[in-house]
Amino acid sequence: DAKTTQPTSMDCAEGRAANLPCNHSTISGNEYVYWYRQIHSQGPQYIIHGLKNNETNEMASLIITEDRKSSTLILPHATLRDTAVYYCIVRPIDNYGQNFVFGPGTRLSVLP
Amino acid sequence: GAGVSQSPSNKVTEKGKDVELRCDPISGHTALYWYRQSLGQGLEFLIYFQGNSAPDKSGLPSDRFSAERTGGSVSTLTIQRTQQEDSAVYLCASSPPSGGADTQYFGPGTRLTVL
């Protein structure tokens, strides 16, 4: 049972920022928000994760609302290679060994 | 550094044959996971190893499926007497021995086709 809700699909113009929303209104205080993506015919790729604070790495930024009930993944300058299905997942801290539950995700199409 | 590798990348077999799928995790990663993904579907969790032990085997679809891990490193997933419904991409992931966030890093998968 995926505990997140994401739009089914989104389009983004190449070079523009892609903002992918995720609702996780039932998130617990001990759960992280993870983002993965899956490019066609490849294994899922880790992007970023966070607990309370906003996070940034070389791939993306993660903005988590103060109440933690939703978050947004930001790809600052989308390229055609960012076309993929993006998965938002919540998962408990210190629940080592628990499998990731992937929902249907958001299919992002980056358009030239 | 090197990521998770899996072999073979593609496997075509006949119904009733046995197959072995291999996973080489990232060096130093203590946890290893197997998932499968049928065409157009989400990921289905199969089994998890911590070191060489598999605490929970309940995700394996049937007793035709088994997995082992040796030396805390390489893992093999074996499917006996394959059936057409076993056709899927089999994904392996590993995660480092850190507390808190357990980030899993996935391999490219093995695409299994049972004719």
Helix content of chain A: under 10%
Low-pLDDT sequence parts of chain B: none
Structure class of chain B: mainly beta
Radius of gyration of chain A: 13 Å
List the main descriptive attributes of the protein structure presented here.
heterodimer; A: 112 residues; mainly beta; 5-stranded mixed beta sheet; 0% helix; 46% strand; globular; B: 115 residues; 7-stranded mixed beta sheet
How would you sum up this structure, described in words?
The complex is a heterodimer of chains A (about 110) and B (about 120). Chain A is mainly β and about 110 residues long. Helices cover about 0% and strands about 45% of the residues of chain A. Chain A has no helices and nine strands. Chain A has strands at about 10-15, 20-25, 30-40, 45-50, 55, 60-65, 70-75, 85-90, 105-110. In chain A, the strands form two sheets. In chain A, strands 1-9-8-3-4 form a five-stranded mixed beta sheet, with no helix packed on it. In chain A, strands 2-7-6-5 form a four-stranded antiparallel beta sheet, with no helix packed on it. The mean pLDDT of chain A is about 90. Chain B has about 120 residues and is an all-beta fold. Chain B is built from no helices and eleven strands. In chain B, a hairpin with a 2-residue loop joins strand 5 and strand 6 (about 55). The interface of A and B includes residues 32, 44 and 46 of A.
